[in-house]
């Protein structure tokens, strides 16, 4: 892992593989290391740049406020600092919102996009979910909060397999390791709530792949359908029987679809 100064903060990042650059942006509260099972596929073809967003992992954790635009500027400074040139960019959930802002604010740095379980603007329900996360995060211990997140992001079919249930239990038991501090969590969640790219999305002119699980109750299918309508040259892939974490729930198919898109573009 390496640190690079991006504006007034230091971002932590890791490089894996070689080839054309692929920047990977994670979602709310998660470090870049959560990309691991995807990077195992991507690094065979691409130079993967795995980023810890501000507030996450080993990157700096300023007080805030945060916004998806500010975090996009962080990533832009990283791309420029590493002299990567135009990059493929993939973002999960909040990472997808950041990727939208990156393509809008710094179009010269983005050659293609993958938006995973993302949204253009929260509706009242999604705002309520994020507000609830903020409230519970203030009073819950890591294990219980992880259990709450799991119930929101994994679809019921995932729970049918004993191995999956065991993995989720182990995730709760290990949740205290690298647990994000409260202040940056609240700031990242606020950035999610405030994200609004609806009127600007038609300005994105690079090939874009949008992926979503058809059972996602957190960022439902309608959010990805809206992204698809508004972004020219976009493709929409719906993974049946999966939720917000469809990229984990059907890992092999997700890795295949996204790798094929990246190789094509």
Element layout with pairings:
Elements: E1 2-6, E2 9-16, E3 20-25, H1 36-42, E4 46-51, H2 68-81, E5 87-92, H3 94-105, E6 110-116, H4 124-139, H5 142-153, H6 162-173, H7 182-194, E7 208-213, H8 221-230, E8 234-239, H9 246-249, H10 251-264
Parallel strand pairs: 3-4, 3-5, 5-6, 6-7, 7-8
Antiparallel strand pairs: 1-2, 2-4
Polypeptide structure, described:
This protein has 265 residues and is of the alpha/beta class. The chain has one domain: 3-Layer(aba) Sandwich (Rossmann fold), CATH 3.40.50. Helices cover 43% and strands 19% of the residues. The chain contains ten helices and eight strands. The chain has helices at residues 36-42, 68-81, 94-105, 124-139, 142-153, 162-173, 182-194, 221-230, 246-249, 251-264; strands at residues 2-6, 9-16, 20-25, 46-51, 87-92, 110-116, 208-213, 234-239. Helix 3 links the parallel strand 5 and strand 6. Helix 2 (68-81) crosses helix 3 (94-105), helix 4 packs antiparallel against helix 7 and helix 5 (142-153) runs antiparallel to helix 6 (162-173). The protein is globular. 44% of the residues are buried. The mean pLDDT is 97.
């Amino acid at each position: 892992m390496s640190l690079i100064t991006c504006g007034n903060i230091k971002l932590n990042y890791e490089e894996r593989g070689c080839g054309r650059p692929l920047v990977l942006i994670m979602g709310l509260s998660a470090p870049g290391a959560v990309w691991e099972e995807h990077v195992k596929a991507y690094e065979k073809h691409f130079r993967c740049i795995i980023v810890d967003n501000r507030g996450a992992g080993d990157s700096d954790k300023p007080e805030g406020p945060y916004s998806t635009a500010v975090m996009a500027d962080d990533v832009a400074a990283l791309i420029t600092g590493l002299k990567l040139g135009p990059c493929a960019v993939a973002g999960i959930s909040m990472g997808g919102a950041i990727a939208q802002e990156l393509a809008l604010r710094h179009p010269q740095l983005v050659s293609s996009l993958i938006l995973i379980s993302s949204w253009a603007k929260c509706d009242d329900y999604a705002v309520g979910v994020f507000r609830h996360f903020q409230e519970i995060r203030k009073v819950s211990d890591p294990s219980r909060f992880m259990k709450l997140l799991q119930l929101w992001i994994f679809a019921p079919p995932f729970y049918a397999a004993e191995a999956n249930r065991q993995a989720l239990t182990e995730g709760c038991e290990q949740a205290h390791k690298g647990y994000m501090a409260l202040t940056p969590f609240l700031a990242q969640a606020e950035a999610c709530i405030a994200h609004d790219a609806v009127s600007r999305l038609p300005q994105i002119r690079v090939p874009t792949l949008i992926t979503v699980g058809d059972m996602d109750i957190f960022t439902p299918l309608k959010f990805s359908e809206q992204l698809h309508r508004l972004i020219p040259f976009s493709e929409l892939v719906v993974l049946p029987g999966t939720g917000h974490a469809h990229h984990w729930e059907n890992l092999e198919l997700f890795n295949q679809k996204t790798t094929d898109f990246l190789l094509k573009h």
